[in-house]
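Checklist before submission:
- one chain only
- standard amino acids only
- sequence pasted in full

Submission:
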Amino acid sequence: MKVDRAAERGGAAAAAADADADADAAMCKTIEELHFTPPLNFAMVDNGIFRSGFPDSANFSFLQTLGLRSIICLCPEPYPEANMEFLKSNGIKLFQFGIEGYKEPFVYIPEETVREALKVLLDVRNHPVLIHCKRGKHRTGCLVGCLRKLQRWCLSSIFDEYQRFAAAKARVSDQRFMELFDISSLKNAPLTFSFSKRICSQY
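Returned file contents:
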């Protein structure tokens, strides 16, 4: 009996190709199942402190990996029901400080509201914590900038970080607010979490 070795080799190659295709499909399915989508403009601010735009249901799996204890929302609108359900099911506390999202030249940032949000942010009992507004640019940027002042960052570094997230939407009024924000009443607040200091002579 004559054996067609070429046909055998072709069949073996086809079987191997099919096995590889099955393995690739399985891997893609695994990657898809493990795919986590962070919210818009997500970043780590410090140990136990994160920032982002407004999270939606597509981001919930990712947020679960952070082990959040609390969320600081800087938007005045009622928190979405789906988000509230997510917080409730994961034991996450919501701190909402409603700051209107004005556009220049009519920007108004309530200093006392930012001060109260900072007190929550500085309390390590609330960590890990996520700060967010709508886009994670202006209101979130101002709160993080005021935190950086407490951390003794120089203004140029504070503004660089703000502009990295705000990009073309950076506002002079926001930067002016951060520059003039009075941290004197918060100087004695414990900064027990780890952070990198960016010291300059003006402090």
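Reviewer check: The chain has a mean pLDDT of 81.
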